[in-house]
Give the backbone structure.
Amino acid sequence: MVLGLRQFIQRTGDGAGQPILDTDNGEELMHVQPSVSIVLGNRPPDSPGSLYITSKQVIWLSDVDKTKGYAVDFLSLSLHAVSRDPEAYTSPCIYTQIETEAVVEEEDEEGSDSESGEVLDLCKVTEMRLVPSDASLLDTLFEIFCECAELNPEPIEDEAEGHNWIFSADQLENEASVGEDSGWHFFQDPTNSIGHSNGDHDLANTVLQLQINDHRFEDAEEMEHESDGSH
């Protein structure tokens, strides 16, 4: 997946209709909102267009220029919020921050987001505002953003091939004591305590119980050995 904002011009109906979605991979259209202006960085707002929120991405298509459109995956949105503070921006809007792959220095960012009319470098855009003509729709749009963001959780980065992690009892106690800062997520069951294993809970529980039983068996053998030695 390519992080950041990108150009989007794939439309149905010879380029005049709705965006073409990746339906083969399960992408669904969740909401359409007409009359929405887009503001990229510190640039002036574009003429109103249509906002398409899908299960994978946010797409804005210009109503004036059929060759102009932008898209960003939900996985690239590090923050989205409702902004009604006139000191932050002149119009109420959905404010978003975008993760990019490019290293943006202050001088480059100011140049790319300036109003000088230069070609916009999308890979350096880190802020996007969506300004609906009807500000009363902001809360609805925000809720839809939240729902779609939940459909796209941040993938767990790990260099190992396997993803079904198994924790011993001692490790669970140590990790649980560390808390949320550890980077691991645990759930507590009144009857059992196991590590969250990326879906294979039954397997994790079985292996963990075997590990605990093994430890108990080893302890019993050691105690029996010490008892024999004392005689």
Summary: The helical segments are 12-15, 106-112, 138-150, 169-178, 201-230.
